[in-house]
Protein 1
Amino acid sequence: MLVVTRKKDEKLVIGDDIEVQVLRIGRENVRLGIKAPADVAIYRQEIYDAIQSREKGGPTGGDSVTQVDLPDAEASPEADTHSPQRAKAQSDGRA
C-alpha cells in the first residue's frame, strides 16, 4: 500500500486519467473529489462489499437470495452514485 500525505486542494494522479483531490479536511473525515472516466466504477468499501456479497448469494455464498439494503443516492450528498455517467457528471460539477 502506498501511503501519501496531501493537504487541502492537493491532488493525486493515478494512471493517465484518474485524479483524486482533497476537498475538505474535518476532525474525523476527509472529503475527496475523484475525476475518472465514466466507465470506471467507484464505490466506498462497504458498498462494494455489499454488492459482492449480493452477487455471491449472500454471506454463505450459497444459492439463497439475500436482500442487501444499499443507501439511496438521493438520501445523502455523500452517497455513492449508481451509474458511471452520474459519477462522471458529479466529478465534473455538472450534477
Note: The chain has two domains: 1-42+80-95, 43-78.
Protein 2
Amino acid sequence: MAYIINMKIRGKKIVEQFTRKHSSARKPIMHWFRVASSKNWENFSDLKQTFGTADLISKNKSKYVIFNIGGNNYRLITKIDFNGNLIIVKIAMPHAEYDKDKWKDSL
C-alpha cells in the first residue's frame, strides 16, 4: 500500500515577518500555504499544474522555484526537495523588490 505524503513547508518565520510588514500579503500567502501543503508533487511539471505561473531558476548549482502570489503582487522564492516532500521558503518580497534582482545575491 502506497502512502501519500503531502508537502511540508519550512520558512514560516520568513513569511510571518514579511506579512507583518505587508499585511495585504497575508491572505494570499496563507492560501498558497494551504494549497502547497496539501499537494504531493513529484517534480516541477506536477507543480506547474497547480501553480501555472511558477518559475524555475538555477543559481549556484541549485534550483529554486519562484511563486507569484496575490495577483502577481508578491513573490515567494523557495527551494523544493520533491523526493523529500519539502518546500523551504527562502525569501518573501513584494514584486517591485523582486524586479530589482538584488535577492539573487542572497541565494
Note: The two ends are 39 Å apart (CA to CA).
